[in-house]
Structures are given as structure tokens and as C-alpha cells.
């Protein structure tokens, strides 16, 4: 049975925050994307049954969008702008394209919705690249679109809350929210995504959110409420190798998405720093920052640029070079597999070693030249998954005892449907792009709907599972190994160390295993209320949040560490601490599980009891985990795991501990 799925599009109100170029790079469309392109073949309703009668949603008409744009696939569509207008002033659609309707003018909403629930499309591709069968994670699911953000720049909290209310009463099963804010995070009682998702979860609706694109830095993760599933992004095994040959016949391979005609011809190549415009400094020109190049000197040439701390985006360099009538870009950067779209001219991304070799060739040759080859698509030839460079990392800056992100899913170079109208929007920096039906894009916006689709599938197998049970199933069955050598998965941001729970929570999602997890760590909504009390929020704030008159019991100490999450995170372990967990058997009634612990270095872990015996009367069992630090200095986070094993299932949760000492502040 297909499930209902609501998709929010999204956005990011991520403010530029120090090194955060990714906002520009991935969402040139920074502007918050929204809506859906209903004519996309991803949203055809062939072979779908009638709309379930429990659905209460509507197809709200508007500009270029009427009731015939909804079908048995897109069963609901609404749009919200009253809050926007109250907050930001009248929506001015002249000069910038925007539809006062659920229609997507940016592409982001169409992309994310088709990833979650798109129908099968034969021979989909981005101009011939990544060609093949495209399909969403749960192609039999229905979609409802709640457009809450506008290409003119923003989304208002009031609109978001109104959309949550409607989605809950419309009867959605899953909310997929590829949007968020950057640090510093608002408290849970003030963050509309936390508030709205609290109500959704209280109504049995699973809420899946992006972790954010502010990696690879610690404490950057957003959407950290414990009732949300927070999704990191990982790479896949598809690559887009693109070769170029220098005048000395040396050939290098980088990555690009180039299918145009500046190939197999020799072009002169220059270094950005050597063609700085007079009013720009060499530093900016080296990274080909905005307006840094002398157009006379760049015209007709390929430019070599090196990423800098301030200018980290190949897309920005590409725009500078195209503006100066250059004919190509070789962009040397920290290793990352997400590829920028280049349409007019080739943009090949290489690592700094290759960039340096090219530069040495250029400085030792009188007339350096380069010849590009076309991009190829390869499958199964690069190790994966790795956590994406840009994926925001834990620990949560708001509640480090709640592990975030929860899980990783594919979010790099994802092909999905797009809005052909996006070429009309002047501000999205894609002027050079023709109108596209499919596009390759990267971000935690793309990984989030992968999980949403999987949640929809799990819900159809286990319709009675709570959002916490579904999250537990995903987290405890995730993989911490790559799919090839069986090595520990790595993170692009720190490529020579293994990925840890702050990169990807439980690990990379394994959908089939999540359908049969053996045991689950379930949570009732009342426990989330205790959690809110433990955050120190006052009774009126907690009552507003839960919409129940709540009096927090501030005498008995309820420990955040005891929230029954599928992880144990102790941000301050002084000597020792005991935490409790309860597991519910969802596998064979008679099951015997044994604990296996990989203790975090520097920590002794004892699990009691070490054997759990389930039967028809004992279906939920409690156990305690005692963690004891053997360090006598202020420590850093260390990682381990606890697995319950019955010979068939491995129910694994991460252990995250930072040992601290009481007298760190004392003078020695
Ligand atoms: C919806 O819009 C389309 C295209 O403008 C039009 O052909 C169709 O008649 C409209 N349908 C309804 C029910 O208004
Ligand atoms: C709307 O935007 C256009 C173009 O950006 C501008 O010329 C016009 O003054 C704006 N109108 C209002 C009412 O702000
Ligand atoms: C598949 O798509 C490619 C590129 O869009 C096109 O050239 C080709 O003819 C298509 N093949 C089929 C079988 O439709
Ligand atoms: C590069 O290869 C071409 C074709 O094989 C050859 O003609 C040319 O002399 C070579 N150039 C150098 C610098 O080796
Ligand atoms: C660009 O370089 C040319 C040639 O060196 C020079 O004449 C011109 O003034 C430069 N223009 C700018 C804007 O720097
Ligand atoms: C309770 O907390 C909220 C949110 O932090 C705050 O706005 C409000 O003033 C507080 N109320 C009282 C009575 O302290
Ligand atoms: C189930 O297990 C519990 C505790 O392990 C035990 O007390 C109880 O007798 C068992 N019940 C059955 C029906 O085996």
C-alpha cells in the first residue's frame, strides 16, 4: 500500500557563517526553494489506485496551478504567503519569477519530492550524464506539497507552523523537510521546525529533516530535536570522471558535469593570480572570486583557480570566468565528490595535488595549453559511501546528549526531476543553464528525502510503529562500513580517518535491514515532555509546546541520558554514570540476545543484564549501561558501540562519551 508523504521544500535560512560557501555552491538557489512542477514525469499517476479516503487534504489553486495539476500522485498542494507578507512585506513577483501557487520556480521542491516518491522514468539523464532508470525511494507513495518559502527570499515561521497544522490534519504519514537554520540554534520552544515536528510526532507522523550543509565542522548540525530524524549526506558509487591533457601530453582526471563543445581543442591556460584585475588582490584572483579577473586577459582562455578559505566555490569561479569570456576552468580544491554543474564551459574539479602539477607545467612552459575531454559516467568504480564534505556535523550545539545527525543517506550528485522554469529566475545564478527537466544536485536537502522514502516503505510494512520506533530501526541497522572493501566508512572532511557518529549517527542507511531490526528503542511523547523540562524551559513554554498544561517536576531528576534513544551520548562523564534503556522485541517472540560492547577508548562499559531473554510475556526488557572513565584529565569525545545480537539481528547503537574532570578549572 502506498503511503502519503508530504514534502516541504526547502530552504535554508543558513546565514553565511564563516567558511560557509556551500550555501552558495549548492543552493545557488539559496533562496528557498519551494513548490512542485506537476508536469514532471516523476509525478505521473499511472497505475496508482484512487486517493485513500482517509486523506483530508486539498489541491489549492493559484497562479498557473489548478485542480487538474493534482492527480492520484500529487494528492495535495497548498501554499502559504500571509506570514511571509506580514514578516517581509508584499511578495513582489515582478522582475523575479515566482508563482503565487504551489508551482515550483526554483527546482529544489521538484527535486526533493521526486527523490522521495517519484514514479519510474526510463532513460532519465542530465544531458546524457547519469543516464538510466530514475525512481524515487517510495514510488508508490503519494505526495502533498506545502509551499512555505519563496524564490524572492525567505519563509516565515508563521507560514511554516500553519503548514504543519494543515499537514497534520490532512493526514500525512511522513514529513520531509529539507530546510533549516544555521547556528546559533534557537531553543526547541522557539524553533518552529522543532515545535511543528513535535506535534506531528505526537500524531504519529515521522518527521525527517536535513542536517545542514555547514560541514565538515563540528557542532554545525541543525534540526537537532530528539523527535526528528536528522539526515547527513553521503556519496554514492557513481562518478563523473573528466580528463584533460596538457601541452606536454600529461593527462589528468578530475570530475565535471560537462557535455558541451569546448572539447578536444587546445586552449591557452592561465593562472587566476596572473590575470588579476587592477583593483583586485592576487588572493582573490587566485580563487577566481567575483570581479577579480581582468577580462581582457581571461578572454578565450582556460583559467586555473585554487580554492581559498574565503572563496571555496567552483560555481563562483565559473561565473567569474564566464563573465570574463574565458573558455574553461580547472578548479583545485579540497577533495570532495560533489560536482558543480557547468553548462557553457568546462569546469573540472581536481584536488590540490593535480592543481599544483598543472601550475608547475604552466610556469615551466612558454605557451601552456590544455585540451578537455567529455565527461563520462561510471558506476561501481569509486568507493562509497563516504560522508559528504559539506554534511553538517555533531555534536548538537543545543543538546549534546542527543546524538545528531541520526543517519546518513545519499546526498551527492543526485539526479532527480527539476523545474524547467528555474532558468527564468535571474537570481539563482543559473543564467547559463537552459531549461532542465532533470538536474544533478548535492546537499543534505537531497539525502533527507531518501530517508523519507524509506520511512514510507517501513510504514507500509509496519503501520503501527511510532516515529521513534522507525528511527530506531533505521539507526540500529545502519552500516558503518563501505560497500566495497568492507573498510570502515570515511568522511570526506577528514579523509584518512574513519567516519564517527558525529558524521553519520548510526551510519549509512540499509533499508532492507531497517524493515526487520529485531529490537527497537521506542519513546513515548511523554518522555519528550520530560526532555523539554530537563532542558530547563519553564512550565508555560513547555505547556505551549505540548499544548497540554504541563508542570515540570523539578525535584526528581530525570536525566537526558535516559531518554530511550538508539544511542548513548554522554557529553560530560565525570567518573561514572549509569543510564537505562528499554528494548522492545519486534522479531520472533522467543528470542535470546547477547550484549557485545566496543567500549570507547578510555571508558569501561558494563551492560546489565548482558543477556536478554524475550518470550510471550516479556516483550519489553530494561537494561542498564554503566560507563566509567579511566581518564584523569579533561577528555575529548570518544566513540564505541553496544550491539544486541541473537545470531540473526545485530541491533547496534553508538556510544559517545566525553570524559571530563571536576577540577579542570582549578589551578595546578
Ligand atoms: C487548468 O488549467 C489548464 C491549463 O491552463 C486548462 O487547460 C484547464 O482547463 C484548467 N482546468 C480547470 C479544471 O480549470
Ligand atoms: C518589485 O520589483 C521590481 C523589480 O525588482 C521593482 O522595480 C519594483 O519597484 C518592485 N515593486 C515594489 C512594490 O516593491
Ligand atoms: C535516451 O536519452 C538520450 C539522451 O537524452 C537520447 O539521446 C536517447 O535517444 C534516449 N534513448 C532512448 C532509448 O530513448
Ligand atoms: C604529444 O603527443 C603528440 C601525439 O602523440 C605528439 O605529436 C607530440 O609531439 C607530443 N608532444 C610532446 C610535447 O611530447
Ligand atoms: C587588463 O589588462 C590589460 C592588459 O594588461 C590592461 O591594459 C588593462 O588596463 C587591464 N584592465 C583592468 C580592468 O585591470
Ligand atoms: C518562559 O519561557 C519563555 C520562552 O523562553 C519566555 O518567553 C517566557 O517569558 C518565560 N515565562 C516565564 C514566566 O518566565
Ligand atoms: C518469560 O520470561 C520471564 C522473564 O525472563 C519469565 O519470568 C516468564 O516466566 C517467561 N514467560 C514464559 C511464558 O515463558
Q: Give the class from helix and strand content and strand pairing.
A: alpha/beta
Instruction: Name the overall outline.
Output: globular
Per CATH, the superfamily of the largest domain is Peptidase S8/S53 domain
CATH class of the largest domain: Alpha Beta
> Strand share of the residues?
25-35%
Oligomer designation: single chain
Count of DSSP H/I helices: 15
**Beginning-to-end CA distance, first to last residue:** 66 Å
Question: In short, what is this structure?
Answer:
The chain is of the alpha/beta class and 668 residues long.
Supply database-style keywords.
about 675 residues; alpha/beta; Rossmann fold; Glucose Oxidase, domain 1; 4 domains; seven-stranded parallel sheet; 33 strands; globular; disordered N terminus; binds 2-acetamido-2-deoxy-beta-D-glucopyranose
Describe, in plain words, how this protein is organized in 3D.
- The chain is an alpha/beta fold.
- The chain has four domains: 3-237 and 385-476 and 491-514, Peptidase S8/S53 domain (Rossmann fold), CATH 3.40.50; 241-376, Glucose Oxidase, domain 1 (3-Layer(bba) Sandwich); 524-561, no CATH class; 563-668, Sandwich (Immunoglobulin-like), CATH 2.60.40.
- It is 20% helix and 26% strand.
- It is built from 15 helices and 33 strands.
- The strands form nine sheets. The protein has a seven-stranded parallel sheet with strand order 2-5-1-8-9-10-20. The chain has a seven-stranded mixed sheet with strand order 13-12-18-14-15-16-17, with helices on both faces. It has a five-stranded mixed sheet with strand order 26-33-32-28-30, with no helix packed on it.
- Helix 4 packs parallel to helix 5 (192-202).
- The longest helix has 18 residues, at 444-461.
- Bound molecules: 2-acetamido-2-deoxy-beta-D-glucopyranose (7 copies).
Amino acid at each position: 500500500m502506498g503511503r502519503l508523504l508530504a514534502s516541504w521544500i526547502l530552504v535554508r535560512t543558513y546565514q553565511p557563517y564563516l567558511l560557509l560557501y556551500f550555501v552558495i555552491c549548492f543552493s545557488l538557489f539559496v533562496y528557498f526553494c519551494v513548490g512542485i512542477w506537476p508536469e514532471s514525469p516523476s509525478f505521473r499517476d499511472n497505475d496508482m489506485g484512487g486517493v485513500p479516503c482517509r486523506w483530508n487534504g486539498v489541491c489549492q489553486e493559484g497562479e498557473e496551478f489548478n485542480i487538474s495539476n493534482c492527480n492520484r500522485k500529487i494528492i495535495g498542494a497548498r501554499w502559504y504567503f500571509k506570514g511571509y507578507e506580514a514578516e517581509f512585506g508584499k511578495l513582489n513577483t515582478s522582475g523575479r519569477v515566482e508563482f503565487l501557487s504551489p508551482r515550483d520556480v526554483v527546482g529544489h521542491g521538484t527535486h526533493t519530492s521526486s527523490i522521495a516518491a517519484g514514479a519510474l522514468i526510463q532513460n532519465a539523464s542530465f544531458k546524457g550524464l547519469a543516464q538510466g532508470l530514475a525512481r524515487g525511494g517510495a514510488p508508490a507513495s503519494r505526495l502533498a506539497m506545502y509551499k512555505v518559502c519563496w524564490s524572492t527570499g525567505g519563509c516565515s515561521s508563521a507560514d511554516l507552523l500553519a503548514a504543519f497544522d494543515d499537514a497534520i490534519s490532512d493526514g500525512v504519514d511522513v514529513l520531509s523537510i529539507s530546510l533549516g537554520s544555521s547556528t546559533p540554534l534557537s531553543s526547541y520552544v522557539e524553533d518552529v521546525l522543532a515545535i511543528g515536528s513535535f506535534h506531528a510526532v505526537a500524531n504519529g507522523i515521522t518527521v525527517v529533516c536535513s542536517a545542514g550543509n555547514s560541514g565538515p565542522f563540528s557542532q554545525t548540525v541543525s534540526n537537532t530535536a530528539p523527535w526528528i530524524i536528522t539526515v547527513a549526506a553521503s556519496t554514492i558509487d557513481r562518478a563523473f570522471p573528466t580528463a584533460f591533457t596538457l601541452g606536454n601530453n600529461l593527462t589528468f582526471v578530475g570530475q565535471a558535469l560537462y557535455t558541451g563543445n569546448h572539447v578536444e581543442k587546445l586552449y591557452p591556460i592561465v593562472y587566476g593570480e596572473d590575470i588579476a584585475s587592477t583593483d583586485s588582490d592576487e588572493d582573490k584572483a587566485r580563487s577566481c572570486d567575483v570581479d577579480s579577473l581582468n577580462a581582457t586577459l581571461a578572454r578565450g582562455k582556460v583559467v586555473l583557480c585554487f580554492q581559498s578559505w574565503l572563496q571555496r566555490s567552483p560555481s563562483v569561479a565559473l561565473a567569474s570566468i564566464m563573465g570574463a569570456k574565458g573558455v574553461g576552468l580547472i578548479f583545485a580544491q579540497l577533495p570532495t565528490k560533489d560536482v558543480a554543474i557547468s553548462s557553457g564551459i568546462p569546469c573540472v574539479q581536481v584536488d590540490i595535488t593535480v592543481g599544483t602539477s598543472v601550475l608547475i607545467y604552466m610556469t615551466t612552459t612558454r605557451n601552456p595549453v590544455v585540451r578537455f575531454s567529455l565527461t563520462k559516467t561510471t558506476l561501481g568504480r569509486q568507493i562509497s559511501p563516504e560522508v559528504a564534505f559539506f554534511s553538517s556535523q555533531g555534536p548538537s550545539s543545543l543538546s549534546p546528549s542527543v546524538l545528531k545527525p541520526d543517519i546518513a543517506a545519499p546526498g551527492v550528485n543526485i539526479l532527480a526531476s527539476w523545474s524547467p522554469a528555474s532558468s527564468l529566475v535571474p537570481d539563482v545564478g543559473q543564467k547559463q543553464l537552459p531549461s532542465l527537466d532533470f538536474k544533478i544536485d548535492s546537499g543534505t536537502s537531497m539525502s533527507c528525502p531518501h530517508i523519507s522514502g524509506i520511512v514510507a516503505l517501513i510504514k507500509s510494512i509496519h503501520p503501527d510503529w511510532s516515529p521513534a520506533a522507525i528511527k530506531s530501526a533505521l539507526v540500529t541497522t545502519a552500516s558503518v562500513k563501505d560497500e566495497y572493501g568492507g573498510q570502515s566508512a570515511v568522511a570526506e572532511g577528514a579523509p584518512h580517518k574513519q567516519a564517527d557518529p558525529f558524521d553519520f549517527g548510526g551510519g549509512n542507511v540499509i533499508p532492507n535491514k531497517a524493515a526487520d531490526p529485531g529490537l527497537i528503542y521506542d519513546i513515548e511523547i511523554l518522555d519528550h515532555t520530560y526532555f523539554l523540562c530537563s532542558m530547563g524551559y519553564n512550565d508555560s513554554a513547555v505547556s505551549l509546546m505540548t499544548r497540554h498544561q504541563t508542570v515540570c517536576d523539578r525535584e526528581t531528576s530525570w536525566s537526558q541520558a535516559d531518554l530511550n534513544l538508539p544511542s548513548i551520548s554522554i557529553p560530560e562523564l565525570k567518573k561514572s554514570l549509569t543510564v537505562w534503556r528499554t528494548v522492545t522485541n519486534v522479531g520472533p517472540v522467543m528470542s535470546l540476545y547477547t550484549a557485545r560492547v566496543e567500549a570507547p577508548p578510555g571508558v569501561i562499559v558494563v551492560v546489565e543484564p548482558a543477556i536478554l531473554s524475550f518470550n510471550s510475556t516479556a516483550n519489553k526488557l530494561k537494561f542498564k549501561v554503566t560507563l566509567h572513565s579511566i581518564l584523569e584529565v579533561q577528555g575529548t569525545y570518544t566513540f564505541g558501540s553496544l550491539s544486541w545480537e541473537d545470531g540473526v539481528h545485530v541491533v547496534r547503537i553508538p556510544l559517545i562519551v566525553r570524559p571530563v574532570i571536576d577540577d579542570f578549572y582549578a589551578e595546578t
